[in-house]
Amino acid sequence: MKRVSLKDVALEAGISTSAVSFILNGRAGEMRISKDLEKRVQAIASRLGYVPNQVAVSLRTGQSKMIGLLVESIAGHFFGMLAKIIEEEAEKSGYKLLYSSTENKAPRGIEILKMFSQHQVDGYLVTPAKGMEKEILNIAGHNKPLVLIDSYFPSDIISYVSVDNYNGTMIGMRHLFERGYENIGFVTVDIRLVQIEERKMAFRDALTEKKGKKANDWILEIPYTTTAEEKIKLIRAFIIDHPDMDAIFFATNYLGIPGLECIQQQGMRMPKDIAMICFDDHDLFRLFPGGITAIQQPIDEIAKTAISVLIRQLETRKHSKPTYEQIKLLPALIKRGST
């Protein structure tokens, strides 16, 4: 079906395309166009199904009023809530979202960034996968408004908003030590992302400092693409191989959920047989009888801070040199019955 153009609306209305353009862009009063004509043209445009060409609008105004949001996954609780809050906050400032995910695949993420560019987004909110550094630096190097969320990499010309993964994990480890647990296992994902590396580093430092143990013997790394069933098998084997393990720390909730299922299948009681804590809370952990202790990320604060930083960049980019904000927010320990 042929796309309805301004010219089609103008022919139907019997006026010039420039007059139609003024009306549909909210400039009828400025151009002294009568209210009756304005209403008639708007009705014709609606009846014909006219939709403005967004690229043409952005070329004319210098703005698309769109923000590209690229996250790790659209399926998980954390990123789903993050996207919802960002969308609500962006709308308050007159922006709409283009939303997609990398699934931790750099080539996919790079293609989506190109798509965002083709749609002339005004700014970028990105959770980068490993291998996207060159493209991210290219965007930043052209002074495009850009904020990294959750994951980041060191750079003086890139803003980011993240949780303090290292100290968040330390808070969890201190809690376990205070409860008397000594033989603590750590289940993480085998992927080179800064937030995952910081959590693993904190576990190693805490265990080595407190117990003088070789932390690597107490770490299970599970490939990111492993199925839920395979995760359960690997976690079961890890527990069986460490019969004196009295607590287990999961680095993400998408590992903690199969971990919980594994513990249930083994008939283990929490915290009597084994204690459990997870970085990143989940509704399931709150609803589970007795509850699962978690390190709760401040999703609302992360989302609102990230979009605020980006909006500030968008509002000041034409009038001042870019400023870069690098913010780490402290998560909270939510104590429940599993510890």
Task: Chart the SSEs and their pairings.
Blueprint (H helix, E strand, L loop, with lengths): L5 H8 L3 H8 L10 H14 L5 H8 L4 E6 L5 H16 L3 E6 L4 H13 L4 E4 L6 H9 L4 E4 L9 E5 L1 H14 L5 E7 L3 H18 L7 E5 L4 H14 L5 E4 L2 H13 L9 E5 L3 H5 L5 E4 L2 H18 L9 E4 L2 E3 L5
Parallel strand pairs: 1-2, 1-3, 3-4, 4-5, 5-11, 6-7, 6-8, 8-9, 9-10
Antiparallel strand pairs: 10-12
Write out key terms for the chains shown:
6-stranded parallel β-sheet; 17% strand; Rossmann fold; alpha/beta; 12 strands; 6-stranded mixed β-sheet; 47% helix; 434 Repressor (Amino-terminal Domain); 3 domains; elongated; 339 residues
Strand order of the largest sheet: 2-1-3-4-5-11
Count of alpha and pi helical runs: 13
Round the Cα radius of gyration to an integer and report it.
26 Å
Name the helicity range. 40-55%
Mean pLDDT: 90
Assign the CATH architecture of the largest domain: 3-Layer(aba) Sandwich
- How many β-strand runs? 12
Quickly count the domains: 3
Q: Low-confidence spans: pLDDT under 50, at least 5 residues? A: none
Instruction: Quote the beta fraction.
Output: 15-25%
Order of helices and strands: HHHHEHEHEHEEHEHEHEHEHEHEE
Tell me the distance between the termini. 62 Å
Find the CATH topology of the largest domain: Rossmann fold
CATH fourth-tier homologous superfamily of the largest domain: Response regulator
Give the CATH level 1 class of the largest domain. Alpha Beta
Structural class: alpha/beta
Overall shape: elongated
The largest β sheet comes out as:
6 strands, parallel
